[in-house]
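hey
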């Protein structure tokens, strides 16, 4: 059996989400705070009242809305990446899954949403007929997770602002502030536990055999590693994700490899087995000592799992700090 230290972000600790009340949309006066205008990834959207029928494309937007207690507003989701957080499984299972990957424009329209919330930029792929303009022309508002606005390095501040923005859009600001406070507290406790410990060099291994596909300096993963008492050995890669070379991996000598786990990318066991089998990596400390930390990809994205990922990474990098 492979000696893998498994740190699955937020699988056990997530508290139960708040339950939402009746939908705020429909006839009658607008709720407090509306009309509301939001600038999102270059698109300006005005909300007269909170959305009542939302479709989420990708898993992390769905988990964020469920954590805000908005199950009653969700009429469809798509593209699950990994097992759903335990506290959210029952609610998630009650939402119609429109497609295993990104659903077609026509399939989304069948759900009659008034908002489509996408996790990755591919949610609104123009070449597949799902551009934000196409939805606007159909009378449907859109929102893209801020991580894919492509403007700057992504940090935990983006996670907190994404939660607050959705709180404003859905008219649940108090819930959003409570969720942010919980996430901030989790990060502070984990970072505090490893404060003063030696920095651990970490390689993120997403996938790839001829060249490793890794998290660059603009990724949220880089900040999660830093908060957990580590250093992304490819933090100088000026992108969110990118290819590097195995020769660079050998030169940078990571002591821990964080393996991203998600559907359709090969199992964690397959990825670890591949890394252990590469003669060129035999003297890399992480490979020689078989130090692997497993992280669901959704935990390294702007969403509720990222705060939990800091503790899971910290435990993997500095196990002595949590005895």
């Amino acid at each position: 059996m492979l000696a893998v230290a498994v740190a699955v972000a937020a699988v056990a600790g997530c508290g139960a989400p708040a339950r939402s009340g009746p939908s705020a949309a429909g006839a009658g006066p607008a709720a407090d705070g509306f009309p509301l205008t939001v600038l999102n990834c270059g698109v300006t959207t005005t909300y007269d009242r909170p959305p009542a029928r939302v479709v989420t494309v990708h898993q992390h937007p769905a988990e964020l809305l469920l954590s805000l207690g908005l199950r009653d507003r969700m009429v469809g989701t798509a593209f699950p990446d990994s097992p759903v957080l335990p506290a959210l499984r029952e609610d998630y299972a009650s939402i119609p899954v429109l497609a295993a990957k990104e659903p077609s424009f026509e399939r989304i329209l069948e759900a009659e949403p008034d908002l489509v919330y996408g996790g990755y930029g591919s949610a609104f792929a123009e070449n597949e007929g799902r551009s934000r303009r196409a939805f606007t022309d159909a009378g449907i508002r859109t929102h893209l997770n801020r991580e894919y606005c492509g403007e700057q390095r992504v940090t935990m501040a983006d996670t907190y602002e994404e939660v607050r923005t959705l709180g404003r859009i859905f008219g649940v600001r108090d819930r959003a502030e409570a969720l942010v406070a919980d996430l901030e507290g989790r990060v502070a406790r984990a970072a505090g536990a490893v404060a003063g410990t030696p920095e651990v060099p970490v390689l993120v291994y997403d996938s790839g055999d001829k060249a490793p596909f890794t998290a660059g300096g603009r990724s949220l993963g880089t900040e999660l590693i830093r908060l957990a008492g580590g250093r992304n050995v490819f933090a100088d890669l000026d992108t969110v994700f990118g290819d590097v070379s195995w020769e660079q991996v050998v030169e940078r000598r990571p002591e821990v490899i964080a393996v991203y786990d998600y559907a359709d990318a090969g199992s964690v066991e397959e990825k670890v087995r591949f890394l252990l089998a590469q003669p060129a990596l035999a003297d890399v400390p992480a490979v020689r000592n078989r130090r692997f930390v497993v992280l669901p990809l959704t935990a390294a994205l702007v969403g509720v799992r990222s705060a939990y990922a800091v503790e899971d990474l910290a435990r993997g990098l500095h196990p002595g700090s949590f005895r």
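The CA atoms of residues 259 and 294 lie 5 Å apart. The radius of gyration is 20 Å.
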